Every structure is written in C-alpha cells, then in structure tokens.
Amino acid sequence: MENPFSSDAQQRIINAIRQAEKATSGEIRVHVEPHCVNPDPVQRAIDVFAQLGMHQTKDQNGVLFYLAHVDRKFAVVGDKGIDAKVPADFWESTKELLRRHFAAGDYAEGLSQGIERAGEQLKHYFPYASDDTNELSDDISFER
C-alpha cells in the first residue's frame, strides 16, 4: 500500500498545512513512504528534506513530517532557522503527540495535530508578512 490515507484524510492533512501556514512565513511538508530506506528515520527525514528542496526557504524555517507507514517509523525535522528558536523539548514532545495517535492507527489526526502544533511555533517565531509567498507545495509527497 503506497498511500495509507483516504482522499478525505489527505485533504484534512493538506488543510491543516494550509491553515498552519496562513499565519507564518514557515513551510510545512508531509512525506509518506511505505518503507524507511535508512535504519534511522531521522536521517531519512533529513535526506527527504533535502530532496524536497526544503532547505531553500528564505528564513530556513521549513518543517518536515516524515512517515514510513509499513515500517511504523516517523520523524519530525526542522531547518536551522526554526530549530534554533523552538523550546528544547519541542521536537520530542511533538513526536510524542504523533506517537499517541499513530499507535491508535490514526495517522491523519496525528499529523493534523502535529502540523497545528508546528504552525503555532512557526507563527510565534516567523509571523506572516504581507510579502510572503508559499515557497513549497502543500501537497503530501509520496515515495513510490
């Protein structure tokens, strides 16, 4: 199964990204694949982050939610700009929020809540400016 989400669930995640990005110059992406090709999901997320060109945002404030659904592995990584500003436990507490939902099999809800949480931090540290442009696609990327 390449895509674990119904079309409704996908739309819910995309809507969460769009809602979160309304108030910030930050960029949020979700990448889903069946298997993690690296034993370390964080390293795989860093590789995907680069493949998606997320390091090219103006303020280095991209956040990637990575999910390898068959392997049941995931990671949340942020670029240098946002990583330098969020509280020290932010990434770990966000992963814990995702873990609770994922354990119950509710990937869409977990991702939506995690995205909302990341959006709050991005809004706080990188508020929306009138000249902001959406630098990255809001669509979920899928590895085939």
Automatic annotation (TrEMBL):
It holds the Pfam family TPM_phosphatase. Residues 5-120 form the TPM domain. InterPro entries: TPM_dom. This is TPM domain-containing protein. Gene3D superfamilies: 3.10.310.50. It comes from Spirosoma profusum. The lineage of its organism: Bacteria, Pseudomonadati, Bacteroidota, Cytophagia, Cytophagales.
